[in-house]
Amino acid sequence: MPEDPPPELPEPVGRRVLRLRTARGLTQRQVAEPAYTPAYISTLEAGRVRPSDAALRHIADRLGVTYEELATGRPAHLATDLRLRLTEAQRALATGAAGEAAALYADLSAEAARHELPSEHAAAELGLGECALETGELAEARGHFDAADALLTAAGAPLPQRAPVIRARAVAHYLSGSLRYACYLLETALDDLNTGGLHDPDALVLLYTASIAPYMDMGAHARAAQAAELALSLAPRVADPALIAQMHRSVARTLLAEGRVVEADASLTKAAELYQQLQIRTELAHCHWMRGYVHAQAGRLTAAEAELRTARDMLSAKRATLYTQQVEVELADVLRQLDRPREAAQLLRALLGELSPERGAVHAAGAHRLLGLIAQESGAQEEAEEHYVNALSLLERAGAAGDLADLCRLLGDLYRRSGRIEAALDTYRTGLGHRAAPGTTTLGPAPARPPV
Q1: Number of C-beta neighbours around residue 200 at 10 A
Q2: Which residues of 261-280 are buried (b: 16+ CB within 10 A; e: fewer)?
Q3: Sign of CA dihedral 395, 399, 400, 405
Q4: How would you class 142 by CB atoms within 10 Å of its CB: exposed for 0-12, middle for 13-18, buried for 19 or more?
């Protein structure tokens, strides 16, 4: 296997002076006078002297370049140009295909690395991770997010600036089934922000919003509600409409869990309007997904199917593979309730070939749970038990206590009906343990509150 080429060393400033002077057809005397001698320029170009800032400014003026370009070798206005191109890549990810955006981000990452611009390099790595997240390449996404965090940390970036990367790392671990670690990342950052006096509203809302989904899946509903409450209280101080929309979409889940269906629907409507204005199609698809869930909970199954199919088609068109598969699990549940079990089972079996413990663990468990229900309703008790046990294993590994109690009830009922009373009692006790104190065995103290 061929070895990687050695990294290109930065050009010494003396060699840069020589290159620029020669390209412009200037003599050493023309560059040196009136402040310096030709001998000084010769010594500098040979690398035998380190120039002062004053000397560099004089030479840069004589060569017709900026001080920064001469001192660092970076083209003038490079950082500004890179930031503009990062915005273009973000727009491509929001409105186009992830593959196109990934190509833009890859070029930006290489260029920022070559010119030693850590903030722009980290932003490009974050974008590459978001692209990988959308296509379901979770290990690749985590690698890019970790690289972005390492770049910002090494550059001494303040915690509010690192918040988007921390949130992205948490989301990638959450989707991989590491719910506890996702909560740890978010809670540690929130604690550091609040106890350190870094009360940046954008960073706080971003992190509180991201914590809602793992809290809900872990059964820590009180913490999810508190995070939603704090995000809402900070919202008036946030100017970014995309962040506000993201908050409303996440808060809707806590409202729905509390039975506040009308308020949840209103929150999703606000989010959808903002995403529509911003033309962020992936997030708009998530709003359709969530509204489908709201309709399903309210028993409006035909409306739920329509919303979920819209979400699936939008995500599929953007090749957001993992999210498409997750929507299809919800759609299969609606199809089962609409008395179309064969269609639902066919959809779920196809999905299980793609989902895994490391890639959509909670939704893979949901697919097994639904296949268990369909098998049980058709009288195939052994098949139902197998699916329930598989779902239980996935949820336990992920720490998703929110769904474990319900699944233990289903499996316990199945054992009881088949006469296995001891197994049923053990399973019920397991479920009661998860229901009695959701989240308290897996989460530490709640993060500090901001002064709002």
Answers
A1: 19
A2: eeebbebbebbbebbeebeb
A3: positive
A4: buried
Q: Please give the torsion angle defined by the CA atoms of residues 346, 347, 349 and 354, in that order, rounded to the nearest 10 degrees.
A: 150
Contact assessment for residue 127 and residue 101, using Cβ atoms and an 8 Å cutoff: yes
Q: Quick: pLDDT tens for 264-323.
A: 888 888 888 888 887 777 788 888 888 888 888 888 899 999 999 999 998 888 777 888
- Select from 101, 68, 76, 69 the least CA-distant residue to 86: 101
Please check whether residue 265 is in contact with residue 273, taking contact to mean a CB–CB distance below 8 angstroms: no
Q: What are phi and psi of 100, to 5 degrees?
A: -65, -45
The pLDDT-based confidence of 216 (bands split at 50, 70, 90) is confident
Nearest to 437 by CA among 404, 388, 394: 404
DSSP single-letter state for residue 380: -
Nearest to 178 by CA among 384, 442, 451: 442
Look at residue 262 in the predicted model and tell me its pLDDT: 86
From residue 14, alpha-carbon distances to 18, 42, 75, 293 in Å are: 6, 9, 17, 65
User: What are the beta bridge partners of residue 359?
Assistant: 356
Sorted by sequence, the CB contacts under 8 Å of residue 148 that are 6+ apart come out as: 122, 123, 125, 126, 129, 165, 168
Maximum alpha-carbon separation in the chain: 101
Query: Would you tell me how many other CB atoms lie within 10 Å of the CB of residue 38?
Result: 14
Least confident of 67-71, 163-167, 274-278: 67-71
> Burial level of 89, CB count in 10 A (0-12/13-18/19+)?
buried
Q: Report d(CA 434, CA 121) in Å as an integer.
A: 43
Give me 115's structure tokens: 């010119």
DSSP 217-246: HTT-HHHHHHHHHHHHHHGGG---HHHHHH
| CA-to-CA separations, 248 to 166, 183, 232, 254, 326, in angstroms, rounded | 20, 20, 8, 10, 20
Map tokens 């296509």 to a residue.
135
**Measured CA angle at 81 (ends 77, 87), to 5 deg:** 150
Q: Is the pTM of this model over 0.85?
A: no
